[in-house]
Amino acid sequence: MSRRKKKHNGDGVELNLAAMLDMAFQLLAFFIMTFKPAPIEGQINLKLPPPKPVAGVQGGEKAGNDDNNRSAVEAISTLVISAFSTPGGRIQTLAIGEGNIAGVSALDGQLRDILKNPDSPFDQVIIQIGSKLRYEELMKIVDVCTKQTLPNGEKLTKLSFVELPADAQP
Amino acid sequence: MSGSSEGESDLTPMLDMVFQLITFFMLVTSFKAASLDLSLKLPVVGSARPVETGGEESLLILNVNKEGQLVVYSLPQDIVPYLKAEAKMARLEAKRKTGNFKDTDDLPTTVVVRADKDTPFGLLNLVIKTCQDNGFRKFALKATDRAAL
Fold first, then answer.
1. A93-to-A98, A103, A130, A148 alpha-carbon distances in Å
2. What percent of chain B has pLDDT over 90?
3. Residue-number span of the structural domain to which A129 is assigned
């Protein structure tokens, strides 16, 4: 108090900054302790509709609606990729339709060949995946698929996932 | 400096500096990071790129650990009831924004899936399928790119 008196006797009013500094330090401590920089993450955007029949039926009727309908299928519009997994969750076998392919890099080339054809009827991809396949391995396949361009110039983003039974074999 | 002769230090520069630090931390702090489970190890995918939505798109962030547990704001959640409730909220929001939104329409919310790289597909598919059953169609699968490592 004696100090204050001395100051008041001086040439003006002086604020006691110590209290403000205390509060500022508390605020600073709060922000330092809660500061958690967000990691830089990328993402792959997809449209994931529920799996649909791989072929259309004449007349626009939905496939499987009528058991007695024997009309021929219009066209196969869905490309089916199968990925079987090892018990450890790695890719064991990859296949497009019925044909096996050597690996993810070969899948890239095959898909490009199929989709570069202007008459290619495919507009979506169904990926059949072994239930033990790890997310990391799945993303390699998704990465290859989303790099592809459809004959109409659009990027392939329409994918569907189907789970294969755990004991499914190629 | 007025009190320097009496052994009193001038606190003004220190206060200035502290306020500058506070301003810095206020500007860079994002509470969005709290929704991310940073213990998850994301897969590395070359083509994964950060996407800026400009804050206009609504996002539903789902963290899935390698046991297939859904973790939201550090709390494990039951998959089916949680996603049903989120879908209901998203539907209400979509109706509020666009008057002609029908219950059968696809939800405009993007589901951001942050799964551990070792999560088996069977467990991850349970989350994705439940989202699809509740009307979500737009998904973003999170990964890191090599440059970020």
1. 12, 8, 10, 21
2. 35
3. 55-164
